[in-house]
């Protein structure tokens, strides 16, 4: 699909980070946005800041995507305001790193609720609107960690593998509907997702590794417009896909690039 005037795009997790940068790019290309996050004020500020759409004002719906009722009501409201949904970006997510055994159960639950149920609810709520239009594109935000999970990121990696599995199957399942699906596997980009624990990161993950979000946004836009099955950003993330067939080799590569803490067990 082309992102242009007339494109009606719903983005979850739109108020900060990747969602905000992507929403800005989509609006700059003429799309009219439906913006979802929990914080109402952040959304309303963004709706005013975005490049204006010739098709009408950008719309907002504050919702916690981990709650089915809130998510379905928000998506229904946005579909009504925009007159339909052509592009859905299921992006909202949270991340807490830490040794599994020490991790507070509330942190682990939050990741499962937002990253698993949030993505599931977003797609469930939006698909009927998109099927009615018989055309459209869905972007699911997985992670490099959804390809190969890392120490201190056991639960996060598990949730992102769920996102991958959901999106991979749907791309095929929706083949005859006019709706396509792209799964995005970002490496490490400079957003607010780790602001709560900048001083307590896994040894294999430093703040200095983070890349500019604009690079990821460009790759996602290309993935949507050229209907890519997957977006690996930066491209080297693709190597992690090897983990399923050559886990030892993947561990060796990771150890060389990120040090022993990325794959401490020598098997
Ligand atoms: N940054 C990276 O390097 C990276 C790498 C791989 C994958 N990802 C994935 O990319 C996505 C976006 O990450 P980001 O780095 O842009 O994060 P971010 O800067 O923390 O932004 C997260 C956005 O999601 C919203 N959000 C959080 N919990 C929500 C909930 N329960 N319901 C609705 N909205 C919620 C936040 O707004 P409110 O707090 O107001 O709700 C915010 O707008 C996530 O799925 C993440 O796992 C990021």
Please write out the topology:
Layout: E1 8-12, H1 17-28, E2 32-37, H2 40-49, E3 59-62, H3 68-82, E4 87-90, H4 105-133, E5 136-141, H5 154-173, E6 179-186, H6 213-225, E7 230-233, H7 247-258
Parallel strand pairs: 1-2, 1-4, 2-3, 4-5, 5-6, 6-7
The site of NADP nicotinamide-adenine-dinucleotide phosphate has 30 residues, from helix 1 and helix 4.
Quick tags:
alpha/beta, 7 helices, single chain, globular, binds NADP nicotinamide-adenine-dinucleotide phosphate
Write structural notes for this entry.
This protein has 267 residues and is α/β, with parallel strands linked by helices. The protein has seven helices and seven strands, in the order βαβαβαβαβαβαβα. The chain has helices spanning 17-28, 40-49, 68-82, 105-133, 154-173, 213-225, 247-258, and strands at residues 8-12, 32-37, 59-62, 87-90, 136-141, 179-186, 230-233. It has a seven-stranded parallel beta sheet with strand order 3-2-1-4-5-6-7, sandwiched between helices. Helix 1 (17-28) crosses helix 6, helix 3 runs parallel beside helix 4 and helix 4 (105-133) packs parallel to helix 5 (154-173). The model has no long low-confidence stretch (mean pLDDT 97). Residues 12-19, 37-39, 42, 64-66, 91-95, 114, 118, 141, 143, 186, 188-189, 191-193 line the site of NADP nicotinamide-adenine-dinucleotide phosphate.
């Amino acid at each position: 699909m082309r992102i242009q005037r007339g494109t009606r795009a719903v983005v979850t997790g739109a108020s900060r980070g990747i969602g905000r940068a992507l929403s800005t790019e989509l609006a700059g290309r003429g799309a009219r946005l439906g913006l979802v996050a929990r914080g109402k004020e952040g959304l309303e500020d963004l709706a005013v800041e975005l490049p204006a759409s010739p098709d009408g004002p950008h719309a907002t719906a504050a919702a916690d995507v981990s709650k089915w009722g809130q998510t379905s009501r928000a998506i229904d409201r946005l579909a009504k305001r925009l007159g339909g949904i052509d592009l859905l970006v299921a992006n909202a997510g949270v991340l807490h790193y830490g040794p599994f055994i020490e991790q507070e159960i509330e942190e682990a639950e939050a990741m499962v609720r937002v990253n698993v149920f949030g993505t599931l609810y977003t797609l469930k709520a939006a698909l009927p609107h998109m099927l009615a239009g018989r055309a459209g594109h869905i972007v699911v935000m997985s992670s490099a960690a959804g390809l190969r999970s890392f120490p201190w990121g056991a639960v996060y990696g598990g949730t992102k593998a769920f996102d991958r599995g959901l999106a991979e199957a749907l791309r095929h399942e929706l083949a005859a509907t006019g709706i396509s699906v792209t799964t995005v596997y970002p490496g490490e980009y400079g957003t607010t997702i780790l602001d709560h624990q900048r001083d307590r990161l896994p040894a294999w993950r430093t703040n200095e590794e983070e890349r500019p979000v604009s690079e990821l946004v460009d790759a996602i836009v290309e993935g949507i417009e050229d209907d890519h099955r997957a977006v690996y950003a930066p491209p080297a993330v693709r190597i992690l896909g090897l983990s399923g067939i050559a886990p030892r080799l993947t561990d060796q590569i990771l150890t060389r690039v990120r040090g022993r803490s990325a794959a401490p067990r020598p098997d």
